């Protein structure tokens, strides 16, 4: 399973928002919370299952 954490860019693979680019706000074992700044803000993130999201850019590791 791909490691998903806050700050990574991700693309929606399923749903009415397919192919929309998001920033991961929070992640747990089953879900990620996503925001894009236009339709979904950080105050009202979209909850999506991890399997419906593809990471497209990883954060820099230290």
Any chance you could write out the topology, listing elements then pairs?
Elements lengths: L8 E4 L8 E7 L3 E5 L10 E4 L3 E5 L5
Antiparallel strand pairs: 1-2, 1-5, 2-3, 3-4
Walk me through what this model shows.
The protein has 62 residues and is mainly β. It has one domain. 0% of the residues lie in helices and 40% in strands. The chain has no helices and five strands. The chain has a five-stranded antiparallel sheet, with no helix packed on it. Strand 2 and strand 3 form a beta hairpin. The protein starts with 8 loop residues before the first strand and ends in a 5-residue tail after the last strand. The mean pLDDT is 90.
Shape: globular
Query: Low-confidence parts lasting 5 or more residues at pLDDT below 50?
Result: none
* Arithmetic mean of pLDDT: 90
User: For the CA atoms, what is the radius of gyration?
Assistant: 11 Å
Helix content: under 10%
Q: Helix count, per DSSP?
A: 0
Structural class: mainly beta
Q: Main β-sheet: number of strands, strand sense, barrel status?
A: 5 strands, antiparallel
Biggest sheet, strands in spatial order? 4-3-2-1-5
